[in-house]
Specification:
Mean pLDDT: 93
Low-confidence stretches: none
Radius of gyration: 21 Å
Distance between the termini: 34 Å
Helix content: 25-40%
Largest sheet: 8 strands, mixed
Strand content: 25-35%
Shape: globular
Structural class: alpha/beta
Number of helices: 14
């Protein structure tokens, strides 16, 4: 084995949360090593819908989803599906998901998320300046489309909850939807508009600039796979094929791959994987001016630089299976309901979201070892919550954190 490296802080995982955390810590003068087996920012952080969704406090599990869950799971073309070969593995997670979808749990989960989301845009604005991202951000809002009155009625609880949390939202008439997005076909569709939402025009470039900013402030990067985490007196040892690292502190930000590392730190976290898909279509001119989500289809259509990205839906089923062509076909059929003259897709993608039954991330110290800091499980909100997560991690490491604030996101909230 090569000589063991030593570093003050190792950040395991170079998705958007890991990149933001490395940048924040390096900007505070910390010695930071960012570790990932793949190119930084190449996973779900690259393939997402590009929305900074400060409004998205409603957890995936909620009473509206619970009422239709059997139908959703049995219909292979629904926005929420699972790979049936993985059912045995997923069963404990699904049981917990059902419990977290009950009204009282839903409200508690939404309240916890709303508290984080209230700080998401200010944290992003700070990071935009720090990493030079101004040209990649568009604050044009986000539009939900309700093509069926039943879907609009089912969303009443979510609208009321967001209103109670002070989230800015506007119900639009069909004429107002048409005026906001004239490129959409006329259909008498109602809308829900979130005017404060921001989107990025190229997630890959955002990740590259975050990486560059972190390196410019002294962070280093190692392409490696961590297979073992072992706490020792005064340090944490990380190891993998052919290398070893001894870190004063470790931040686990490995997204969908975080569960095994957390377990080695002594924390049993019910993390599962949502398999996310996207298609992209080249466009000569933008077809939309902001992200648009047809609620019944469960995906976003986001205008990006020279292309339209169609991203979303939920497929539970682990990390190992190949892409499901049926899910990609579902996205293709769905977007053509709005833009039937699109050419064939120019690219397709499968990535993995780290998903917890209550839709809350895990942020905070390991209950068994304060030298291990968790920062994973952000589900659909990794891009949105990355800068505020980074700030919270940096506060913990710098002795400025407030444990009570992070209690809703503790690793042991499901029991040990």
């Amino acid at each position: 084995m090569a000589a063991e490296e030593k570093v003050e802080i190792a950040v395991v995982g170079a998705g958007v949360v890991g990149l933001a955390t490395a940048l924040r810590l390096a900007a505070e003068g910390r010695e930071v090593l960012l570790i990932d087996p793949n190119e930084p920012g190449s996973g779900a952080s690259f393939g997402n819908a590009g929305t900074i969704a400060e409004y998205a406090c409603m957890p995936v599990g909620n009473p509206a989803v619970l009422r239709t869950l059997p139908k959703l799971l049995l219909d292979p073309d629904s926005p929420f599906s699972l790979r049936w070969p993985a059912l045995f593995q997923l069963a404990p997670w699904l049981v917990s998901f059902v419990k977290q979808s009950l009204p009282a749990a839903t409200r508690a989960n939404a309240l916890a998320l709303a508290g984080l989301l209230a700080e998401a845009l200010p944290a992003w604005e700070e990071m935009v300046t720090e990493a030079g991202l101004e040209d990649l951000m568009r604050r044009n809002g986000c539009l939900y489309l309700y093509r069926r009155e039943s879907d609009f009625a089912a969303g009443a609880g979510g609208r009321a909850m967001r209103a109670g949390f002070g989230i800015h939202q506007e119900i639009l008439t069909p004429d107002e939807v048409a005026a906001l997005e004239p490129g959409l076909p006329a259909s008498g569709t109602r809308g829900l508009y979130f005017p404060d939402s921001t989107n990025v025009t190229d997630p890959k470039t955002v990740m590259q600039r975050l990486l560059g900013a972190a390196i410019a402030r002294g962070a280093s990067v190692k392409q490696a796979t961590i297979t073992r985490l072992q706490a020792e007196t005064g340090a944490v040892r990380l190891s993998g094929p052919g290398f070893g690292i001894k870190a004063g502190m470790v931040v686990i930000a490995a997204g969908a791959w975080s569960r095994a590392l957390a377990a080695q730190a002594g924390d049993s976290v019910p993390l599962e994987t949502e398999r996310g898909y996207h298609l992209e279509f080249r466009t000569d001119a933008p077809l939309l001016t902001r992200p648009v989500c047809p609620v019944d289809l469960g995906f976003y259509m986001t205008p990006m630089a020279g292309r339209l990205r169609v991203a979303g839906t939920v497929e539970l089923g682990g990390l190992a299976a190949p892409p499901n062509p049926r899910r990609l076909a579902l996205l293709d059929r769905g977007v053509r309901q709005f833009f039937p003259n699109l050419s064939s897709s120019s690219s397709e993608w499968l990535g993995f979201r780290p998903s917890l039954p209550d839709s809350r991330p895990v942020i905070g110290p390991s209950p068994g070892n304060s030298r291990v800091i968790h920062a994973f499980g952000h589900g659909h909100l990794g891009l949105t919550l990355a800068p505020i997560t980074a700030r919270l991690v940096a506060e913990l490491i710098g002795g400025r954190g407030h444990p009570a604030r992070l209690a809703p996101f503790a690793a042991d909230r499901f029991g040990r």
